[in-house]
């Protein structure tokens, strides 16, 4: 059986590793968020130009897409990014923290979004 000093060291080591892992995800997450924002703005801008073009109503759907390559390419890029899992990559740290909270709840603990452990008071058994 472990004594309380060993348990405290294990908790500190776990917390250090969890915060290290989440902090290492932050730069990549920031880059993926910027990519998603840029492609989304390009798609929205292209969609606006596509919709306000009077020729869009007069020609077939595929011809109107051919006439607006900026919108077509940005839309295909956005769809490709979602198929590649960008929606998971932009929230990866919060997914890790949520899964840790689920596991830690069984031990009467939790963690914040940075990985710092939160020890909850022990429930009183009567």
UniProtKB/TrEMBL annotation:
Segments spanning the bilayer are 34-52, 64-86
Give its localization.
Cytoplasm; Nucleus membrane
Which keywords accompany this UniProt record?
Cytoplasm, Lipid metabolism, Membrane, Nucleus, Transmembrane, Transmembrane helix
GO BP term (any one): lipid metabolic process
Q: Does the keyword Membrane apply?
A: yes
Q: Which InterPro entries match?
A: NEP1-R1
The organism sits in which domain of life?
Eukaryota
The family classification in the record reads: Belongs to the CNEP1R1 family.
Topologically, how does it sit relative to the membrane? Multi-pass membrane protein
Q: What is this protein called?
A: Nuclear envelope phosphatase-regulatory subunit 1
Alphabetical GO CC annotations of the entry are: cytoplasm; Nem1-Spo7 phosphatase complex; nuclear membrane
Q: Does the keyword Nucleus apply?
A: yes
């Amino acid at each position: 059986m472990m004594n309380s000093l060993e348990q405290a060291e294990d908790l500190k080591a776990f917390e250090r590793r969890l915060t290290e892992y989440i902090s290492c995800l932050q730069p990549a997450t920031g880059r993926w968020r910027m990519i998603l924002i840029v492609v989304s703005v390009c798609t929205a801008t292209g969609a606006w130009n596509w919709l306000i073009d009077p020729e869009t109503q007069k020609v077939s759907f595929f011809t109107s897409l051919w006439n607006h390559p900026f919108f077509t390419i940005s839309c295909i890029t956005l769809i490709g990014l979602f198929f590649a899992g960008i929606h998971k990559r932009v929230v990866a740290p919060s997914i890790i923290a949520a899964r840790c909270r689920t596991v830690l709840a069984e031990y009467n603990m939790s963690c914040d979004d940075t990985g710092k452990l939160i020890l909850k008071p022990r429930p009183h058994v009567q």
